[in-house]
Amino acid sequence: MKSRLLITAALAAFLLAPCASFAADDTGGLASLRGKSISAPDVAGSDALRKAIETEPLDRDFTEQPPLVTHAVDEYPVTIAVNKCMDCHSWENARKEKATKVSVTHFNDANGKKLSTISSRRYFCLQCHVPQTDAKPLIANTYQRPAGTR
Ligand code: HEC
Ligand code: HEC
User: Could you tell me if residue 86 is inside a domain?
Assistant: First the structure.
C-alpha cells in the first residue's frame, strides 16, 4: 500500500514538473515572425495594419486574392450585432455610397445555394479583406505575381 502511494506521488511529481517549469519560463525563447516575444504581442504593429494607403487599388498578388481595402477600417466595427461594412457595400447602399457592391459569390452558402442576404461565411469581412499597406514581407521570398493580375 505504502509503495503504491509512493509511486503515485512520484508519478504526480513527474507529470507536474513540466507545468511548473513552463509557468516560470515565458515562451522558451519563441518569437513571432516580426521578432517579438510571443508573450508580448506586437499590438502597435497590428494597429498600423488597420490604416490603409488610400489610393487606387493596388495590384493583386494572386488571382483569387480578396481585393484589398482602399480605406482605413478602424472606425468600422463588425460584430454579431452590427456590420458597418454593409452600410456601404450592400447592394442596397453601394450606389448611394459610391462603393463597390459585395461580390455575388458572397451570397452563396457552403453548399453553393444562393441566399438573399450575405452568407454567414462572408459576414466577417476582415477575415479576408485587409487594408492595403506597404507591409514588408515577413520572410524574404522569390514569389512573383502572375502577369496580368489586377
Ligand atoms: C462609409 C462607407 C464605407 C464603409 C463603412 C466601408 N467601405 Fe469599403 N469602400 C467604400 C468606398 C466608397 C470604396 C471605394 C473608394 C475608396 O476606396 O474610398 C470602398 C472600397 C472598398 C474595397 C475595395 C473594392 C474594390 O473594388 O477594389 C474593399 C475590399 C472594401 N471597401 C471593404 C470594406 C470593408 C471590409 C469594410 C468594413 C470593415 C468597409 N469596406 C467599410 C466605402 C465604405
Ligand atoms: C472568405 C473570404 C471573404 C470574406 C469573409 C469576404 N470576402 Fe469579399 N471577396 C473575397 C474574394 C476572394 C473576392 C474576389 C472574388 C469574388 O468576387 O468572389 C471578394 C470580393 C469583394 C468585393 C469586390 C467585388 C467586385 O465586384 O469587385 C467587395 C466590395 C467585397 N468582397 C466586400 C466584402 C465585404 C463588405 C465583406 C463582409 C460583409 C466581405 N467582402 C467578406 C473574399 C471574401
Answer: yes
